[in-house]
Write a structure and sequence with these properties.
mainly beta; 8-stranded antiparallel barrel; 2 helices; 48% strand; YceI family protein
């Protein structure tokens, strides 16, 4: 009797559909950006960003990704760049304190690559942005991804800074998000 009960419980458990695991960002994660200014490469980070993910490679359509980015923390480690970047012409951090990126559902690109076709809201403008990423499973999963943001689509670097010869329109964004189970 116990044997058939155990078999019944095991069979029922295996018949249940797989559900996406919910994760929150763990320490050691990074969100970075890079571009060029007058031909010279610059890079920076967004300290204090927060990520939540729901991911199951067997059910990508149920996946979710949400990132909150406090733009006032953006830093290139260059005081002049940072002041200008946080000011009205670029992030306008006093008016738009944060940016958000949200995606529902992922696509399998093959070879361990996935895509999140999401929406970036920056400076009050919402536009589609695709994040391509890899997923490393384990006790501390890692989502490692890249995206390209067309800054002028969001009004970042308008006015005198709109010249794409000075600062190209495309800014590279990269992330390494270590995760832990949501509680």
């Amino acid at each position: 009797m116990i044997r058939s009960l155990a078999f019944g419980v095991l069979t029922a458990a295996l018949a249940l559909p797989a559900f996406a695991a919910d994760y929150v960002q763990a320490p050691g994660s990074s969100l970075a950006f890079a571009g060029k200014y007058q031909g010279e490469t610059f890079s920076g980070t967004f300290p204090g960003f927060r990520t939540t993910v729901s991911f199951d490679p067997a059910d990508l359509a149920a996946g979710k990704l949400a990132v909150t980015i406090p733009v006032a923390t953006a830093t290139t480690q260059n005081a002049d760049y940072d002041t200008e970047m946080r000011g009205n012409a670029f992030f306008d951090a006093s008016k738009f304190a944060q940016a958000t990126y949200t995606a529902t559902g992922f696509r399998d690109l093959g070879n361990g690559q996935y895509a999140a076709d999401g929406t970036l809201e920056l400076r009050g403008v919402r536009k589609p942005v695709t994040l391509t990423f890899t997923w490393t499973d384990g006790a501390r999963p890692l989502l490692s991804g890249r995206a390209t943001v067309r800054r002028l689509d969001f009004g970042v670097g308008g006015g005198d800074w709109a010249d794409t010869g000075t600062i190209p329109n495309e800014i590279a964004v990269s992330t390494r998000v270590y995760l832990q189970p949501a509680r």
